[in-house]
Amino acid sequence: MLHLTECPRDAMQGWPTFIPTPDKTAYLNALLRVGFDTLDFGSFVSPKAIPQLADTAEVLAGLDLSQTRTQLLAIVANLRGAETAAQYPQIRYIGFPLSVSETFQQRNTNKSIAQALDDVAQMQELCARSGQEQVVYLSMGFGNPYNDPWSPEVLGEFTQKLADLKVGIVALSDTIGVSTPATIGPAFRELTAAFPQINFGAHLHTTPDTWREKVQAAYEAGCRRFDGALGGYGGCPMAADQLTGNMPTERLLEFAGAEGVGPQLNQPALAEAMRLNQQIFVGH
């Protein structure tokens, strides 16, 4: 079975108009009823950086976790954010973007890769104390616009550092929408073979006509953990092609069904979530 992470946080965070807190909460509760494995629901970052998600704590307080198998994931940008997330035991995963591009790491978090790795180490210790699990996203995971080094070997070097810290989940993230089967396949093939103790995920961005080849390449190379967002909203402001966005969850479900590895989801709840999705992203 595929492990599916639904990412409304990624869909919402760059939305140009503020989505009211009750609307966010209702949408997330609908998604919780669907039965995805993980829900990337919000982030604990500076409101100046991402004002759309300044209400994450308030939204979290309104979530009904009583009848769902879905685990919550929150994104953080530094140790301070992780310390905040660790105060909420209902959050299972704490996600941190670690860039394989030195330039982007500096621009995104105002820290060097070495400093970010120090944060990862401290967050790993924090998660061990709080009973949570860290998910490290290797951003710029398929290339970058700065001519910083990239190759499957570079990804392997970063992953070795994470393995040494006992990080158990690593997601390759296509920050700018440049992934192709030619880069996706070798990356996952080499990493899954070299680090069997790590659960590798794919956070891919896509245009409407390239989604299948990307998912197929990752799947055939051993990836079983995929991120998506209903409707494909959000996800890729740096992409050259304006049609590039998050991997649509409905496409992941289509692929999983064809392969016979689809999760058992609550279909009426999924239909209701899609209705609210359109209400939020078309209505606002």
From TrEMBL:
Listed InterPro entries: Aldolase_TIM, HMGL, PYR_CT
SUPFAM superfamilies assigned: Aldolase (SSF51569)
Keyword Iron-sulfur: no
EC number: 4.1.3.4
Keywords: Lyase, Metal-binding
Top-level taxon of origin: Bacteria
GO MF annotations, alphabetized: hydroxymethylglutaryl-CoA lyase activity; metal ion binding
Keyword Lyase in record: yes
Coiled-coil regions listed: none
Biological processes annotated in GO: ketone body biosynthetic process; L-leucine catabolic process
Pfam families, sorted: HMGL-like (PF00682)
PANTHER family (UniProt xref): HYDROXYMETHYLGLUTARYL-COA LYASE
Name this protein carries in UniProt: Hydroxymethylglutaryl-CoA lyase
